[in-house]
Write a structure and sequence with these properties.
The chain is of the alpha+beta class. The chain has 4 helices and 14 strands. Among the domains are: 73 residues, no CATH class; 120 residues, Glucose Permease (Domain IIA), CATH 2.70.70. The chain is rod-shaped.
Amino acid sequence: YKKSKWMKFKEQTTLFFSNLKRFFAKIMLKIHEKGSQKLTIMVVPHNEKKIFNIQISNYILFFATVILTVTVVTSVITISSNQQNAKKLVSLSDENQSQILVIEGFKNSIQSLNNKFSKFKADVNQIFRAAGGESDIYQFNEIKIGSEYTNDTLPQEALSLEKLAMELELTKMKIGEMLMFKAQMGTLLSEIPSLYPLAARARITSPYGPRIDPVYRWKSSFHAGIDLAVDPGTPVFAAADGVIDTAGYHGGYGLLVKIKHKYGFETKYGHMLKLGEQITVGAQVKQGQIIGYVGSSGKATGPHLHYEVLIGGKTVNPEPFICMRPGN
């Protein structure tokens, strides 16, 4: 009968594995024969009395060779690795020294910055004390660090930087307050008589208070302002923002301008030669605006400006007011 394909495949597979088995059996037999063979080593002493025979099988020789080879290779690899590690250690040591130098540089920079800022703080404190503020605005009970570090574990330089940052922020805030105060002061100074009323520095020929009348010398009188002698035609400025209350001839004042300001202040400018442009009753004027020109109209012995400052309708000495702004 005809064999099926499966039976043929099965017989061929069985034959193949049988042949393979016999092949490996022959190889193992040869290996065993070779391994069983012995190598004899004879040790002959100089006195030749006794000879030592040492027999070593090929198995032992083979395994000894393998162990020796593995040992040599492992030693070579270990030595090479140690040399590489030594090079890395030298490189890391050099890098560490370099980092130490960089850190020392940072420390010196922080110390220098801290010293410079200490001088700056002294100047800021002096400014605030002069302005009537706190004696020392840089007062901290403890520096709070917003991280996993604490004041005990954080490096001293980091604490210095943290403190410096806090002091800079405080300085920024205080300077902001100072600028706000300056802006408010500037607004206030523009609303009260604080500007020198003339375009040129003048000589005070008659101060505020009791005096001998310059025209009627046989009697005394009270001088309600100050007389500022200067060349005729010198521009006269409004000492502060305000509204014109009087603009024209007014008895002994001659050509007079009276301005009402905020907070109950008033100013008078007498003996003028002529008025400035658009200076009429009810007109708004700004500080520093020309309201007239120096003359000698009215009861005057020569060209000068008669300048008065009133608070609540009562005259006060104008001299402190003409010195309020820097440069006046």
